[in-house]
Design goal:
423 residues; four-stranded parallel β-sheet; 38% helix; globular; Urease, subunit C, domain 1; homodimer; 17 strands; 22% strand; 2 domains
Chain lengths: 423, 423
């Protein structure tokens, strides 16, 4: 049932600097895993059913390494603020609504539907502090067939009343949430510990979450070094920490106990970078968010050259779009501007690099995902770019590069996750 | 026949800083001109047929102040070069193809169709040096119902053989082109003199085009101060000019004889700005192009504050998208980055300002266009954003702001130009 072959044009990454492209090839799925890409179908797969996509473009499923499901409802608005004002005036008031199950169901339905129809096959997602609506979101995501990490958010300080929990409540609800998740036995929806960010989490909350992460081998997601005012605030709140990332490190929440993804890292200094490299922390680069909230532009090529794990995040709705093709576009444009306006020592990102980040770079947070290398979980997206009419033949890489600017949901005509066809 | 009323939600600009928005209003077209926007339909228009768009959003038609029809065929590609390399390796080889009428017809058909289905109602367009295919483009644009300025390009130096003309040939073909245009008697397709840019035009060619502009009251379009290497090249080629814009001024091609639009102006100094202000030169701000080719970001809010005319250009295909909603988005994001990374003395652009630039700012290059103020030519676009589902009601301005990120051609459901309904 999970043995089949896709036939068409193929593009994927083997590593952060090299793409493999085929005008006409066969991608083989054997028992839910990729068996490889072949210009002629090997004899041993000759019995597998072939789905013929002709000249459509087959790429690995994309991973959104950072997004906020409850913020989807106000995407595209409030783009004229910086981070802290935006949290207080747009985000926190909205997130309070998710105490209401009816509201949460209607809102999360919009989010999950949009995620389903796009080119994303895996995502790492913030919910809100509310255990029950977070579980509802996880139920809905499980039904989509996508593979996700979802976090009930923890925050016990410096946030408005309706958003904040006491430390005890936050920890107790986290355990209740984790127990419920275990009970529901999801196949592809996994919990991830989610301290919102250091300004909103007391030392004790952070420390106890770190212990929970170690005890239950739970991955962690949070925000890091996004905005200059935020960083000043952290240095005031945590005078004993050497840098922002050290506040997570001290609590055991920075990759030393379990996998960890940190969104943004726009202003990470050398020490923070070195610790991320050492601990294997993933960076979720969120270029549209960082441009919309005037946060800045992360030195992404530097991170890649250092061997730090980097993927892309839409950060909906500080970023307005849930499309990772748009995130690729914005990563290129932002890196060009950083190079031109601020620092020519950090080179611009190539299309190969942003395609890597959207596929294998972020996908590897889930293990073997995001490539058509043999042994990888079989996530694939089929793109029909027939509407992009031109006078010239284009290579598979050129076709994907063009879609950074021109893709909409009509171009996504097939989607496979872990060897199962969603549509 | 040109008397009618549109009913729906309405948004338009009166000037560069104020938007008028109505949840429910009537926009009246009388004899092809806008008679105003009314919350209740005045008695004197009660006999006019009403087209009811319910809660759809009605805005003035958008003006693309700078784009290149022959480059549409490679949109979205070659984004990793700077200007001069990009011209030589991507643009000039493509433009040579337009000597072949069959090629030109097929390629211009793709361009005009895309322009027709989007939210653009007016555009200022570069063709190529080829008189006959430029006339073919003008025929096709006339058929769309859009209002456009189109230019046969002049270039007699520093360009490859297949692109370059002799000075005599360039002038002779320009006159032949203008005579043919006059003969064809277009209603809405107008010629605009188009010296490509100073590096590609000899002093004599520029001077004689300036005389032609004065003699026949012909407007002018060109490029200005886009890229640092380009600016250095101009200062070498024209040692007697005080600044890049002065090379056009000396030739009578900088707004003193006739209306003039200059694309980019990323690096214009104070003297150049002052002369543009004095001469009423229009700036076509092309943010995606300027980010893709790593040119930089123009200080647009400074230009607006000085009272210089500024509109938006897609600059296809240095910019990959022909949508002015995308250009609005990119103008906001680019201005945020400029503010964050380079110069906090020049403030960020607001949504009101980018909406102004896409409507009235650029529209006024055509006279009274780009607003629903009384007496303006009736260009309107109807947007259906029902697919943008959220949990909250949004104002007309918020709905338009959201569409900067989310619009595609499906959202454009009605289009009127000079009081005529196109669809």
């Amino acid at each position: 049932m999970n043995d089949f072959v896709l036939h068409g044009a193929v593009l994927y990454c083997e590593n952060s600097s090299s793409m493999k492209e085929y005008e006409d090839a066969y991608v083989v799925c054997e028992n839910g895993l990729c068996a490889g890409v072949f210009e002629e179908l090997p004899e041993k797969y000759s019995d597998f059913p072939v789905e013929d996509y002709w000249d459509k473009l087959i790429i690995p499923g994309l991973t959104d390494l950072h997004t906020h499901a409850p913020q989807y409802t106000f995407r595209g608005l409030f783009g004229d603020m910086e981070l802290l004002e935006w949290l207080n005036s747009a985000t926190f008031p909205e997130e309070m609504q998710y105490d209401d199950p009816e509201y949460a169901e209607a809102a999360y339905d919009l989010f999950t539907e949009d995620l389903y129809i796009g080119a994303t096959t895996r995502a790492v997602i913030f919910a809100t502090k509310h255990t029950d609506s977070t579980l509802m979101l996880m139920d809905m995501l499980e039904d989509t067939g996508l593979v996700t990490y979802v976090g009930k958010v923890n925050m016990d300080r410096n946030t408005p009343d309706g958003c904040r929990e006491t430390t005890e409540e936050s920890l107790r609800e986290t355990v209740r949430w984790l127990d419920c998740v275990e009970e529901r036995g999801y196949e592809r929806t996994m919990p991830i510990l989610t301290p919102r960010f250091t300004p909103a989490c007391s030392d004790r909350l952070m420390r106890e979450l770190g212990e929970l992460s170690a005890a239950r081998s739970l991955p962690v997601q949070s925000h890091l070094s996004e905005n200059l005012e935020e960083i000043r605030l952290v240095s005031e709140l945590c005078p004993d920490s050497r840098f922002y990332g050290d506040t997570y490190e001290k609590a055991g929440l920075f990759g030393s106990n379990a996998p960890c993804v940190m969104a943004h890292c726009v202003w990470s200094g050398t020490e923070e970078q070195d610790l991320m490299k050492k601990n294997g922390v993933y960076i979720a680069h969120c270029p549209q968010s960082n441009m919309r909230l005037s946060s800045g532009v992360a030195p992404v090529s530097l991170y890649l050259d250092k061997g730090i794990h980097v993927g892309l995040g839409t950060d909906c709705s500080a970023g307005a779009e849930l499309s990772l093709f748009s995130a690729m576009r914005d990563a290129v444009l932002a890196s060009n501007m950083r190079w031109r306006l601020s620092d020519q020592n950090v080179r611009k990102l190539s299309f190969a690099e942003v395609f890597y980040m959207a596929t294998l770079g972020g996908g590897s947070f889930f293990g073997k995902a995001g490539s058509f290398l043999p042994g990888y979980e079989f996530d694939a997206v089929v793109l029909d770019d027939e509407n992009v009419q031109t006078m010239h033949p284009a290579t598979p890489a050129e076709r994907a590069e063009r879609l950074m600017y021109l893709l909409d949901d009509r171009n996504v005509v097939g989607k496979y996750v872990r060897g199962t066809k969603l549509y």
